[in-house]
Amino acid sequence: MKRSILALVALVLTIPLVAQAADWPTKEGDFIVRDVTFKSGEKLAEARLHYTTLGTPHRNAKGEIDNAVMVLHGTGGSGKNFLTPVFADELYGPGQPLDITKTFVILPDNIGHGASSKPSDGLRMAFPHYDYDDMVALQHRLLVDGLGVTRLQLILGTSMGCMHAFVWGETYPGFAQRLAPFACNTVALAGRNRMWRKMAIDAIKADPAWMGGNYTTQPMAGIRAAADLQIIAGANPMALQDQFPTREATEKALDQSYARMTANYEANNALYWLDASRNYDPSPDLEKITVPVLWVNSADDFINPPELGLAEQMVKRMPKARFVLIPASTQTRGHGTHTSAKFWKADLAKLLAQ
After folding, report:
1. Element (H, E) at 71
2. DSSP letter at 309?
């Protein structure tokens, strides 16, 4: 039962399981960006960008770092999501695709997430209303101004990070030599995908305890509804039916999943996470992406349902892009298949060989 409960937790959209990660040799740091102006016109005197790295930067004859890879997390996550065994143990070891004896791996915490600047630091709902373009621009500042990286071998992104990878490909063409976007589409975030996010946002704001963001205790009724929506959105129905065949098992697993998910849940931060995708739509400029692309979605993804057929249409507009749809099974992880490297590791190795 314990293993089944952990499996359900790992299906949750916004806060992947980090516990039980291997003791990988990491370094952490903060880069401060001053006088930041967001697309909304709002300003932040200082934006703290936290990051984790593995491996050592290598410099070529020109003194340029030439072995950097950036991995971008999903909504509500952090760079430490990529220290989980299902990701790290498959990719960072000797001879693996992101072997850290050869690769300098950069794991940012995006603005609003992890240990980077976020509404809960004190500004609450007065925090600038960032969107994906703002987030990518700050990632660029972290790389160039903070870490001295002017070229990447790869951007790998999951969920929100998948969408960021497409924004990167259009905003900074060629900065990354390859893109590996996992679990997203390349159209405006609308339809059911926007609907469930708006439901979660409305649930938090409708809780009287939210008090316009100036709450003294977390608005738990709103958080419960938002978290439940996120659990369902991230789940694989085949796996749930297989792992929890009784009412008792299902409800116990759900309670455990909710408790873990909401241990560090902060309502205002969540509102910003869920709304940051509001302007996302790379579809008009996909032809700008001319580097090799490995685009992977999974057939059990509620958030990016394969029956829409969007990826199969859009991939044709990028000359070196390849789309892979992972079949659903009791072993796939719904939307969270994006972090389970065993399903796409061989394809990633082929991309890196290009």
Report:
1. strand 68-72
2. -
Is the CA virtual torsion 145, 150, 156, 161 positive or negative?
A: positive
Residue of 141, 131, 132, 122 lying closest to 51 (CA atoms): 141
How many Å from the N-terminal Cα to the C-terminal Cα in the chain?
A: 43
Burial track 50-66 (b if 16+ CB lie within 10 A, e otherwise): bbbbbbebeeeeeeebb
pTM across the whole model: 0.93
The pair of structure tokens assigned to 154 is: 């790869």
Output the tens digit of pLDDT for each of the chain's 354 residues: 333 333 333 334 444 444 445 689 999 999 999 999 999 999 999 999 999 999 999 999 999 999 999 999 999 999 999 999 999 999 999 999 999 999 999 999 999 999 999 999 999 999 999 999 999 999 999 999 999 999 999 999 999 999 999 999 999 999 999 999 999 999 999 999 999 999 999 999 999 999 999 999 999 999 999 999 988 888 888 888 999 999 999 999 899 888 887 877 899 999 999 999 999 999 999 999 999 999 999 999 999 999 999 999 999 999 999 999 999 999 999 999 999 999 999 999 999 999
Q: Which among 163, 231, 229 is positioned nearest to 202, based on CA atoms? A: 229
Going by their DSSP bridges, the two strands 26-37 and 43-54 should be labelled as: antiparallel
- What stretches of the chain show up as alpha helix (H) in DSSP? 2-11, 85-91, 132-141, 160-171, 191-206, 220-234, 237-243, 247-261, 267-275, 310-314, 345-353
